[in-house]
Amino acid sequence: MAVSAKHKEWDALRRALTERVDGEVRFDPGSRAAYAHDSSNYQRPPIGVVVPRGVEAGAEAVRVCAEHGAPVLSRGGGTSLAGQCVNTAVVIDWSKYCRRLVSLDTAARRAVVEPGACLDDLNAELSGHGLMVGPKPSTHDTCTIGGMIGNNSCGASAQAYGKMVDSVVRLEVLTYDGVRMWVGETGEEEYARIQAAGGRRAEIYRALRELRDDGLEPIRTRFPAIPRRVSGYNLDSLLPEKHFDVARALVGSESTLVTVLRAEIELVPVPAHQSLVVLGYDDIALAGDAVPRILPSEPLALEGMDERLLDLAKRHRLAGPRVVKDMPGGAGWLMVRFGGDTKEAADARARDLIERVAAGPNPPRHTFVRDPAEEELLWKVREAGLGATAYPPGRPDTHEGWEDSAVPPDRLGDYLRDFRALIREFGYGPVSLYGHFGQGCVHTRIPFDLEDPEGAAAYRRFVERAARLVASYGGSLSGEHGDGQARGELLPLMFGAEVVRLFERFKAVFDPANRMNPGKIVHPRRLDDDLDHLAYGPAEPRTRFAFPDDHHRFTHAAARCVGIGKCRASSGGVMCPSYRATGEEEHSTRGRARILMEMMRGMPGGGSGADRDEAAVITDGWRSQDVRNALDLCLACKGCRSDCPVNVDMATYKAEFLHHHYAGRIRPPAHYTMGWLPVWARLAAVAPRAANTALHLPGLGRAAKRIGGIDPRRDMPRFAAERFTDWFRRRPAPDGPGGDRVVLWPDTFTNSFHPHIGRAAVRVLEAAGYRVEVPPAPLCCGLTWISTGQLGTAARVLRRTVRALAPRLRDGVPVVGLEPSCTAVFRADAPELLHDDPLAADARLLRDRTRTLAELLDERQQEAGGPSPGAAHGVVAGLDTPRVRAVAQPHCHQHAVMGFDADRRVLARAGVDVDVLDAGCCGLAGDFGFERGHYEVSVKIAEQGVWPALRDAAPGTEVLADGFSCRTQITAGTRARPRHLAELLDELLPARRRG
User: Fold this and answer.
1) By the 8 A CB rule, do 728 and 775 touch?
2) 104, β-bridge pairs
């Protein structure tokens, strides 16, 4: 079809969907770019995207597509690893609106759920009834029930509760040709009733029974009898002994047969108590050998991991000292989780296993983890496998493609040995091996070279050999990730031609026109077609930032996301506040990363020939309005830099994009006001009262906000009557010879708005034995220019600062930052922005010498072997210093770059019992919440986390917030009066208490 004719058809389809569907209909390049990927090796831009506001709207979207002959693909969390969720089709994204728990029968332990319900959110809703969904994939914080049904998901808990197919009771489905029905087990009376009613539904059921009867022998003999057979269609669910269960036959069909509208699922009780045993072996294959000896203990989960995964987890800060300390010696581990009605019962089962394996062959080393918090830390290391292994330091990038095989558990050890030998033969080793060993499922990521045709050909040869190896063990090509495009072509090697023909008949029963996610499972596209990186080769642009973790290549940074989707979680950590507020894929870290990659693909030289022309969606490069729109609601909070499993740093990517996007062009007004705040603050210092009056007079203030691009509902911060630096210059010199030198950095926010924090910090540092210095000349870190993408100005500002601080840095003098965002610039942005500058070495020295106040005090206290005078609790004999209760809202940049551990230790020594909020970003994020057009999102983010958390704080609780933005947002929405760490420590100084 000619391009123009195709686009005319798509435009007619878009108009019809817009007119008839109650939802959001998007055929724009940005949306198509965001949905062109899942978590696989494949890239296929959709025709368009529909986000229905309800189940009926989703059904109407399918009907409209059928009238226009357009393929349809249902999508949930979009984390598929085999290409199931990308296609040239209309994507129906159920995850934004269709999330309801429709009904709950606690006595029967059953629930009816809409397809877009997120697993963790659903389990949170069920937890009050002591119930949960049995399967729990590692993507539990973002995957949806519909996606789990489409993929037949499992996770570690499948050891006890089975695959998703074992949880499904009934499904409400819609066929492409319009049949809407509830399906499930079908007894003879029900079958007769359906036939008597006649019509298309009767035809479907009749064809299914004929298919089953024709294929009884191959279905019974060619389907591996293993716990993790996920490949292929579940034709065995149609067998008489399985009650001709049409619902379970449809589970795992990857949107290739029907659209699931609602699901009735069985629930399981939440385990009252759990215990964890970690068994250490000298080799991962030896750990595999031990699995059959552990299975009789009936654990809730039995997971395996090797030393490479643990090492990578340590490098990615996923495994801290506590986790490493708790791991028994070895190079391969089994993590065995038990449940019980009481903690004693769970522990007893764990101890029994330890005694049995100790008395058996090849006794392992072991650790018995009793602390639930430590158990959770260990478990997260295993769950982080995909992200931790994606970019191994000093090794080629790894990929999906053969990450999910499963074999009989009693043959696992031998399979691991043969599989490692195959990896070595192809020169891909070493790779990390881990997975759900109790059910024989092995995960890995392999360094396939998918960027050139020869590498893709080697990839094909490898997976064909690997498929034959699994088949020889009586295993499954997929143990939970499904077939999609990556394995559909290989199904004859596992099932044989006769069963594959039955699969084709099964597809034709429900979807005779092949319009439901075509090219997956049956009649598959080739596994080496549509490879994302094979059609991605843009010329490397000149950038301001260095991107050191991406081989100094922005093209690699733009392609860094591997699609895990953790940025779509509704709670926990910081990432991603704008997604939590909007529910939009385009406003998640993953969506933005995909759009940036598509921007680069569409650059001149972005691919090769027809491949590039077919794959490219965004073709206007740095000037793209679609990319700018996607990045507009990015708060530049840097949460993804630490929370993303592969450390996508969207704040830096956004700054780089804005630098190019506005090069030589007029910028938004806020870039000149908030972006140049340090300059305006310096000018305001001449007459701060006049400046405050002008900004807060009703008429003048409104005009200033309108001209400056500031939202009229925001209160402008007031300039201090005296800057911190002015106070510091006029203060008397401290008594005594002084101690170690320290530079206290006078950031704009502390200096011009909250100078009392600087004064408190001076007192705390001097009490700790430091001699405080402040730079004599006005300097700046460049933060506001970085966040608005004015990187040339930011670099000039930073050069001046580095040059001024260099003598002290070379003398070993530390620099203490009070404002976390400015401290993070020195620790992260500065060396990356000045990477090839003559001052690069000094910029790195600034990074290494910069500390937060807590870090500096913590180092001093650890050197002294106890509290310093800056941590007064119990220091002065006879002084009654009752412990202080506090809640802390860490600044997002501190969370991402510096962390909060030192603060916890310093506060504990100071007698402060602190509850560190896990409420996410405050929503203000520097200039973001002030800028016109961002207010609603900013407030919604605050209402989702920090505001309600602080409104619920007990009376008398101190509120700690080191970030100026955090304090401003907290003050705007609560009665709390947040303070900086320096203020609280200053108040707790013995001299202050005596005074």
Assistant:
1) no
2) 111
